[in-house]
Amino acid sequence: MKTHLSTVETVLEYEILSPTHFCFNIEAAHWPTQKIRSERLAISSGVAPHSFEDPRSGNRFIRFDAAPGPLLVNYQAEVEVETVEIDPALTETPVGQVPDAVFRYLLPTRYCESDVMGSAAQKMFGQLPPGIGRVRAIEEWVRNEITYKPGSSTSTTTAQEVFVQRAGVCRDFAHLGITFCRALNIPARLVVGYVWFDEPPQDFHAVFEAWVGGRWVLFDPTGMAPVDRLVRIGTGRDAKDVAFSTMFGSVRMTRKEVSVLEHDPRPPKPEPHAQVDHRDAEPAIQTA
Amino acid sequence: MKTHLSTVETVLEYEILSPTHFCFNIEAAHWPTQKIRSERLAISSGVAPHSFEDPRSGNRFIRFDAAPGPLLVNYQAEVEVETVEIDPALTETPVGQVPDAVFRYLLPTRYCESDVMGSAAQKMFGQLPPGIGRVRAIEEWVRNEITYKPGSSTSTTTAQEVFVQRAGVCRDFAHLGITFCRALNIPARLVVGYVWFDEPPQDFHAVFEAWVGGRWVLFDPTGMAPVDRLVRIGTGRDAKDVAFSTMFGSVRMTRKEVSVLEHDPRPPKPEPHAQVDHRDAEPAIQTA
Amino acid sequence: MKTHLSTVETVLEYEILSPTHFCFNIEAAHWPTQKIRSERLAISSGVAPHSFEDPRSGNRFIRFDAAPGPLLVNYQAEVEVETVEIDPALTETPVGQVPDAVFRYLLPTRYCESDVMGSAAQKMFGQLPPGIGRVRAIEEWVRNEITYKPGSSTSTTTAQEVFVQRAGVCRDFAHLGITFCRALNIPARLVVGYVWFDEPPQDFHAVFEAWVGGRWVLFDPTGMAPVDRLVRIGTGRDAKDVAFSTMFGSVRMTRKEVSVLEHDPRPPKPEPHAQVDHRDAEPAIQTA
Amino acid sequence: MKTHLSTVETVLEYEILSPTHFCFNIEAAHWPTQKIRSERLAISSGVAPHSFEDPRSGNRFIRFDAAPGPLLVNYQAEVEVETVEIDPALTETPVGQVPDAVFRYLLPTRYCESDVMGSAAQKMFGQLPPGIGRVRAIEEWVRNEITYKPGSSTSTTTAQEVFVQRAGVCRDFAHLGITFCRALNIPARLVVGYVWFDEPPQDFHAVFEAWVGGRWVLFDPTGMAPVDRLVRIGTGRDAKDVAFSTMFGSVRMTRKEVSVLEHDPRPPKPEPHAQVDHRDAEPAIQTA
Question: What InterPro entries is this protein classified in (chains A, B, C, D) (predicted)?
Answer without folding.
Answer: Bact_transglu_N_2 (IPR048930), Papain-like_cys_pep_sf (IPR038765), Transglutaminase-like (IPR002931)
